[in-house]
Amino acid sequence: MSATMEQISRQSVEMQGSFENTAWRWMRYSGLLLIPLAWIHVAIQDVLVGVHSIDLDYVAFRWASLGWRVYDFALLAFAFAHGVNGLRQVLFDYIGNDKARRRLSWLLLAFWLIVSLIGAGAIVGGVRME
Amino acid sequence: MDSVKLNLTGLARYRGREGQFSFLLHRLTGLGTLLFLVIHILDTSTVYFFPSLYSHAIEIYRSTPMMIGEIFLVFSVIYHGVNGARIAIFDLFFPNLWNIETQRSTAVWTLAIAILLWLPAAFLMGRSLLVHNFGL
Q: pLDDT per residue over B8-37, tens digit each?
């Protein structure tokens, strides 16, 4: 007798701990965290303040408070890692070769690290007034 | 190249309805947001590395095409968030509810909630565009 769709959908599968398993779970945790983090950021900067009111003085004013620097640092860390891992998953759908996948993963890791370091450097360094 | 062609024709032919549509929209909004995010991290970093360049970057953001793009960016961030919450909540807490009926109805609700949240933001941003770039 063949299993019905109902039965199949109720099967529980024991997942073994692996990198992909952890990455899968972290996409969900970081995603839920990014809803308040990214939405508040976008609502304030894009909708309420607007790009016409943003300049060096505004960034300096915002980063004068440690809280906003920590906020921006968390946003940078979670959003960019979430985004690059998402890109990795999309590209994996089009690349079947294991060796090519590994090479791509290293490339994306390097890209993530470099851009994250640049962003983190600016948040830590702050605005340099000339 | 063949796999790209196969994917594009497949997307047009495969009739996966709501589930496929939300999958596609989730990917497109995610990739679009990531593209913006990379540019945004780098241009904001000029405040420390090349402060004199920052005003040039902001000048570009104030142009009409960029401000229109920004309105779509906000939709992407909202839709990706609402749909991501749907995926995360089902995956983490209610995996047994992943069935076609629930998927269809929640996918439609997701789009409706995203549009409702986006409309006030789009209104304010659209008004800002008209005020600053068209002297309204």
A: 787 777 778 888 899 999 999 999 999 999
Whole-number Cα distances in Å, A51 to A44, A58, B37, B57, B60: 11, 11, 16, 11, 10
Report d(CA B58, CA A57) in Å as an integer. Answer: 12
CA distance A128 to chain B (A): 5
Domain count, chain A: 1
Residue A5 within any structural domain of the chain: no
A-chain residues within 8 Å CB-CB of B41? 76, 80, 115-116, 118-119
Q: Which of A25, A55, A129 sits opposite B58 (nearest CB)?
A: A55
Q: Is residue B7 part of a domain?
A: no
Which residues of B are less than 8 Å from A10 in CB distance?
96
Q: Which of B49, B52, B77 sits opposite A130 (nearest CB)?
A: B52
Domain count for chain B = 1
User: By residue range, what is the domain housing residue A60?
Assistant: 26-125
A20 touching B, CB under 8 A? no
The answer as to whether B36 is a domain residue is yes
Q: Give the tens place of pLDDT for each residue, B85-112.
A: 999 999 999 999 888 899 999 999 999 9
Q: How close does chain B come to A99, measured CA to CA in Å?
A: 18
CATH number of the domain where residue B95 is located: 1.20.1300.10
- For residues A84 and A106, give the distance between their C-alpha atoms in angstroms, rounded to a whole number: 12
Structural domain boundaries, residue B46: 17-133
**pTM for the full predicted model:** 0.90
* Domain-embedded: residue A9: no
Whether residues A76 and B41 touch (CB distance < 8 A) is answered with yes
CA atoms within 13 A on the CB side of B42: 11
The CATH number covering residue A41 comes to 1.20.1300
